[in-house]
């Protein structure tokens, strides 16, 4: 009886990962599928990207982020949380930065509202203030501006949001050693460890309404998030 009661108290959360085929997204879906309390739904742009997620046992939704809000809302209608990890990438022009990093993010926020999903985690850029836009190199400023306005749009909603600002992303193997705070010194962080921070963020309601930066450090993702 005791075990049955304990099992009934487990909070099971289904998470829509938008941009799941990206490098952070792939790590995150894997971590979610390995977690006993979470389940992933991977939103991808092309059906041929599905094999990786099928092998993990994750549900797949094929939706182009440049399509209509309703299409994204359909993917979100049966989930408990949305994580926006999508990005246009460093080799695209300003047009894709606007369409994915800004409009895609805003449409996903609106789709979550339409689907009655309250929990929303945004993966942003390290610094997205007005000052950061002005100080950014010319070729990087459009991206920072897009992230700034997407973050502001999210803050203006009544969603249970968290905004994560990772440092310079690397493809190094994660060590689960991070520093997480509202403000930290600039630094690097493996994408795999950013995914670990997202995972712990989803599991902690205390992260709702907060924004924090993430770089390499000497604390596990769980300990770092627990201490916020």
TrEMBL record:
SUPFAM superfamilies hit by this protein: NAD(P)-binding Rossmann-fold domains
UniProt-listed Pfam families: NAD_binding_10
Domain called NAD(P)-binding: residue spans: 19-204
Matches recorded under PANTHER family: FLAVIN REDUCTASE-RELATED (PTHR15020), UPF0659 PROTEIN YMR090W (PTHR15020:SF50)
Protein name, per record: NAD(P)-binding domain-containing protein
Source organism per UniProt: Gracilibacillus halophilus YIM-C55.5
């Amino acid at each position: 009886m005791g075990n049955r009661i304990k099992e009934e108290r487990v909070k099971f959360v289904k998470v829509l990962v938008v941009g799941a085929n990206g490098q952070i997204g792939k790590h995150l879906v894997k971590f979610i599928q390995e977690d006993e309390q979470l389940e992933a739904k991977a939103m991808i742009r092309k059906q041929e990207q599905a094999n990786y997620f099928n092998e993990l046992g994750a549900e797949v939704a094929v939706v182009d982020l440049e399509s209509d809000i309703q299409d994204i809302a359909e993917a979100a209608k049966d989930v408990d949380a949305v994580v926006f990890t999508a990005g246009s990438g460093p080799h695209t022009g300003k047009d894709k930065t606007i369409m994915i990093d800004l409009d895609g993010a805003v449409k996903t926020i609106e789709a979550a509202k339409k689907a009655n999903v309250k929990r929303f985690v945004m993966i942003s850029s390290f610094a997205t203030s007005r000052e950061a836009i002005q100080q950014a190199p010319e070729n990087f400023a459009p991206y920072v501006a897009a992230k700034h306005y997407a973050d502001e749009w999210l803050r203006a909603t009544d969603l249970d949001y968290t905004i994560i600002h990772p440092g310079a992303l690397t493809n190094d193997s994660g060590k689960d050693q991070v520093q997480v705070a509202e403000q930290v010194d600039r630094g690097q962080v493996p994408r795999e460890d950013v995914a670990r921070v997202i995972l712990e963020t989803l599991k902690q309601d205390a992260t709702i309404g907060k924004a924090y930066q993430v770089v390499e450090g000497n604390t596990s993702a769980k300990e770092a998030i627990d201490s916020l």
